[in-house]
Amino acid sequence: MATLLLALAVGCTGLYAGFMLIFQTGIMPALARLTDPEFVTAMRRINEYVPRPVFLTVFLGVIAFPAAAFFVPQDGRTDTQKWLVLAGLVCAVLNHAVTIGGNIPLNTALAASEKAPAGDPSVVRSAFEKRWNGFHRVRTALIVLAFGLLTAAAVLPQGT
To answer: Global pTM?
Structure first.
C-alpha cells in the first residue's frame, strides 16, 4: 500500500508541477504581451475556470498522497527515503501556503475589480501581475522541488 501511495504522490505532484511550470514558462509570458484590458479579462477567466473538480483533486492530492505515503508504514523503506518523502511533503505544503496566502487573495481582488465602477485595467493589472508572478515563481519552485524529492524517494533502492 505504501508503494502505491508513493507512486500516486509522485504522479499527482508531477501533474501539478507540470501545470505550474507551464503557467510560469508559457502562459504568463504569453499573457504579458496582451494589452491591459485583454490581460485583466484573460486572468479573470482563467481564475474562474481553473478551480474545477479535476484541478482540485490534483491540488488536494499533492498533500494527501505524500502525507499518506509518509505515515503508512512500509517494511524496507530506508531512512533516506522517509526523509525525502517528508521533505517533498513539506515543499508541497509550503506551495499551498503561498497559493492560499498570496495568489488566491490576488485572484479574489482581481475578480472583485470587475464589479468596481470604472476600474482602470492598467491600475488593476499593476496591482496584480507583478505580485502574482512573484508568488507564482516561489510556488512553482517549491512544487518542482517536491516532485524531485518524491521521485528520488521512489527510485532509491529499498533497504533490507
So the answer is: 0.91
